[in-house]
Model the fold of this input.
Amino acid sequence: MTQKSFDFVLPEALEAREPPEARGIARDHVRLLVSYRDDNRIVHTRFDELPGFLRADDLLIVNASATLPAALKATRADGSEFALHLSTQLDGPVWVAEPRKTPMTGGERLELAGGGSATFLEPYHGSWRLWTARLDLPEPVLAYVHRYGKPIAYPYVTREWPLEMYQTVYASRPGSAEMPSAGRAFSPRVIEALCEKGIRIAPIVLHTGVSSLEKDEPPYAEWYEVTQETVDAVRAAKQAGGRVIAVGTTVVRALETSANASGQLIASSGWTELVITPERGVRFVDGLLTGFHEPKASHLAMLVAIGGREHLRKTYAAALAQGYLWHEFGDLHLIL
Done:
C-alpha cells in the first residue's frame, strides 16, 4: 500500500465470489484479523471468537438498515435492456439511480417491469454515472422492488443469491441499496455470547447507496438517524471505561455527523455528506469492525483516521499475505 493513495494490488483469488455458506462455512465462521493500534500487534482468528477480544462495558454500534432488492431490469425505447440500480430515495418518487454502464440523456424514459417506468431528470451532483430519476410505479416502491428487484451484485459475484444472503441478522429498517456488510457475520449465538459477557449493542440507521463510487468518487449524501437511546448508550459506555466499537464505516459516518457545535454527540437525523479523513480524525469511536476495502477506496482514509497510516499498511500487508477475502462476502478486520 502506497503512503498517499492507499493503492495496492488485490489478487482475483482474494475476491469472495459467493457467501461463506456456499463455501461450507457458517456465517459467523469467516476469518477475523484483529489489530492493535498501540503496538501494531496482529492476531488471526475467526469471527465467532469476537467476544474474547472485547471487554465488559464495551459497546458495539451496528447499522440496522436493511438491504433492498434494488437492481431492476430496464428497457430503452429501442428495446435494449440493462440493469438499473436504485441508490437513494430523495423526495417521494425521485431517486438517485445508476444506469449500469449505460449513458443516459435528460428526459429519457425507461420501461420497468409490471408497467412501471423511470424518467431520467439530470445528473446527480455532476456525476458522470449517477442520475436523479422519477419512478412511476404501480405500487409502493418497497412492495415493487421486492416483487421485481434483485440484490445489487457486481461481476466478482459469480451467480445470483437470494436477498437473505445480503441481510444482517439485526436488519430492521429497509432502505440500503447495498448491505452494510461489516455486520454480516453476526449470528444469534455470537450476539448472545456478547451479551453474556456484558457487551452492549446499540443501533444507528444509515441507508447506504451504491458502492461502485469507491473507485474515484467521494462518498455522497446518505440518510441517517442516531437516537437518544444510542447517545445515552455511548455516554454510559464511556463513563464505565468501556470502548465504543463501530460495526462498519457507515456507523462512523453517522456518529461523527451527529454532533452539536461543541462537538458533543447528540440525537439527530437527516442527510450526511461528511467525508472522514486523517486530517479531520474521529471523536466518538475507539475501534472499528470492517471488511477489507478495495485499492484507492475512499473508506481507507477513514481507516487511517482511526488506526493510522503505518498501522493500516501493516494490517493490509498481513491480510494479503494470509489470503483474507475481500468484498461483502469476505472476511473482517477489527481495529482496536
Remarks:
- The chain has two domains: 12-67+160-335, 71-148.
